[in-house]
Design a protein that fits this description.
About 15% of the residues lie in helices and about 40% in strands. The protein has about 270 residues and is mainly beta. The longest helix has 21 residues. The chain starts with a helix and ends with a helix.
């Protein structure tokens, strides 16, 4: 009986460790960096659970660089899941203001490999979220203020990396890209060494900055009704098709210079 109890405790602890690793990264204010001269903006604690991020203009990149975090230890072979809780207040965002946040990966030589950026912009009375040139088929609308979880999942299939970006409203899926073929692994010698490079608020063009929550604040009910979902219903990896009307809306969210800068960033 004693041996059975010990074995049960061991299995429980083992399962707990693996369960913890699925969502290993908890982002706090001290998880982020701003550079030696605050060239990556500022971090201001609002309360014990909330902090505000603002950016600083990088004239060469034509972007307003925000803080970044390198604390994640996620590895592609294990399946990567990164989540950050973002406050979206429709009253604090002026129409046209926006921010961008991305999770990037390093290859086995610790060089930049790829990323999946999400772009958030106030357009009229609502907020529109797109995923730019890595998947033009995604467009989500947020019509009510609240705290939303942005989730990135990276997985390996054969010799390629799949990415999946999802917006969650207190665990309830609002919208998702589904699995998207992001990049092949040609030239990567040891796939087990493909890791998270950073989570980066790479462009914050909003005068009030972005509020980030370490954990979801307690509420009585979810903040909004589900947004319209894209047509795809399955998890088959896809590359997406170009909708020219959607391309026009994306151009309003991120400049061509911004897209080029994202590909060449070093955070």
């Amino acid at each position: 009986m004693k041996k059975l109890l010990v074995l049960t405790v061991f299995v429980f602890l083992l399962v707990s460790v693996f369960a913890t690793n699925v969502y290993a990264t908890t982002y706090k204010s001290n998880s982020f960096q701003t550079g030696s001269n605050n060239e990556y903006g500022t971090i201001t604690d609002v309360d014990s659970n909330t902090f505000n991020l603002k950016g600083k203009l990088n004239e060469e990149a034509v972007m307003v660089y925000g803080p970044y975090s390198k604390i994640s230890t996620g590895k592609l072979n294990d399946g990567i899941t990164e989540e950050v809780n973002v406050g979206i207040d429709l009253d604090k965002l002026d129409s046209g203001e926006f921010f961008e946040v991305t999770v990037s990966l390093d290859n086995d030589k610790k060089d930049y490999l790829t990323e999946a950026v999400a772009m958030v912009q106030k357009i009229g009375d609502e907020v529109v979220v797109t995923t730019g040139n890595w998947f033009l088929g995604f467009r989500a609308t947020i019509k009510k203020s609240g705290v939303y979880t942005f989730q990135w999942k990276y997985s390996k299939e054969d010799n390629q990396i799949n990415a999946r970006f999802t917006i969650l409203d207190y665990g309830k899926e609002v919208n998702t890209t589904g699995n998207v073929k992001l990049k092949d692994l040609i030239g990567v010698t040891d796939v087990s060494d493909v890791t998270v490079r950073s989570l980066w608020f790479c462009n914050i063009q909003a005068k009030n900055g972005v509020d980030v929550y370490t954990t979801l604040p307690k509420i009585d009910e979810p903040t909004q009704q589900p947004a319209e979902k894209p047509d795809q219903k399955d998890d088959t990896p896809k590359t997406g098709t170009v909708d020219m009307a959607l391309v026009a809306s994306v151009v309003g969210i991120i400049s061509l210079a911004g897209i080029v800068a994202l590909k060449n960033h070093n955070k």
